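Exercise: predict the structure of this protein bound to manganese (II) ion.
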Amino acid sequence: MGEELKEKLFLDNSSGWKNMDNNQKQKIFDFSNNYMEFLNKSKTEREFIKSAKKLADENGFTDINNKTELKAGDKIYFINRDKSMYLAIIGTEDIEKNGMHIIGSHVDSPRLDLKPNPLQEDGGFAYFKTHYYGGIKKYQWTTIPLSIHGVVVKPNGEKIEINVGENDAEPIFTITDLLPHLAQSQMEKKLKEGIDGEDLKLLIGSIPFDDDKIQEKVKLNILNILNQKYGIKEIDLTSAELELVPAFKARTLGFDESMVAGYGQDDKVCAYTSLVAMMSLENVKNTAICILSDKEEIGSMGNTGMESHMFDFFVSEVINKMGINKPNLLDKIFCYSKMLSSDVDAGFDPIYASVSDTLNAGYLGKGIALNKYTGVRGKSGASDANAEFVAWVRNILETNNIKYQITELGKVDIGGGGTIAYILANKGVDVIDCGVPVLSMHAPYEVTSKFDIYNAFEAYKAFWIAD
Ligand code: MN
Ligand code: MN
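Solution:
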């Protein structure tokens, strides 16, 4: 009797892998293979947007700038400075009454950027000096293979794309660390002070230019190579965006092949699953919007970040081209819109269990995690989703038999974080955070569950086609 009652009343938090048949498992594994392949070609925000554009073009989406008018069923996108992108499918329902269904993720990830004047010779080696981007544990970025991705733009507008270290035939780069034999005082330091930000210097060469009369021979030799290969001079590195990311590939993890290890899964796992979900849609009732934003990891500032007015501009263009715009319509549409802020959640890690409230943690393999709120301490800075909206989202997931968990980031007083949720909420949109749980978040190699990856795809799709 107790068993029956328990089954009826208790929240079900069983593993998503439980009782799974082989067909379903294969579907999940195949989907994850495509995801890893995409991830390997899309390690930076610029590369992700490039891959996303290609996918959108193949699936019948058009640049909104090439359209003069829009009607129900039209599939369009807008690319902002090659670093962020908004996609839309125009719905059959009245956008003024129903608003839009928005899913928003980010495609930037923690990394090391080159400084504006990066090239330095010291002690017979050439280095690129770096400035880290986003919240990293600096020690994790030493002694791993790194690749260089990005662009160098010349004053005449010529843009040179650089991508070195991904191909096995190409060299990689690394940041050295002290040998343990001589690290006595380094090892006494606090972990966060163990590696100084200024010491994150990328080792890029050691052969001196053959001329005894000149200084900085190794630096000259490197510049000579860069000049021959890319046609650039030292000053051209000042108008460049060159990012260092781990050179290793996303791989299947575990004997049971249940997980994915890869760089930049925060938040490319949510960006990819929402993008692919949008590609699978044909007709939608409510206008479906997919946001792939930039700069989330440094506070969403700047004109490619979510804080900028670029998204408002995009939605204005949509309603202009639908021929329905009028004063205050943009505000009205936002107030009737619904959004999943699709960003990763902290997965429960038994090795570090003490930072989590086990009753409210997000678990790998238990489905998409909905964070009603984020923020720090007393919910400071949080966008706390309204109970009515949480119930509305639950209804979609439950009706479609999609597994989910409602979670918090960690113990109350331990720390916290945020996403782009509050930015859209401030415009009047109903928003909840909804993403894949991750282990080792912000590390060069992050871990997710294949079950959750496929589950996110299904959840995002269900949200877009919901009434
Ligand atoms: Mn994130
Ligand atoms: Mn992050």
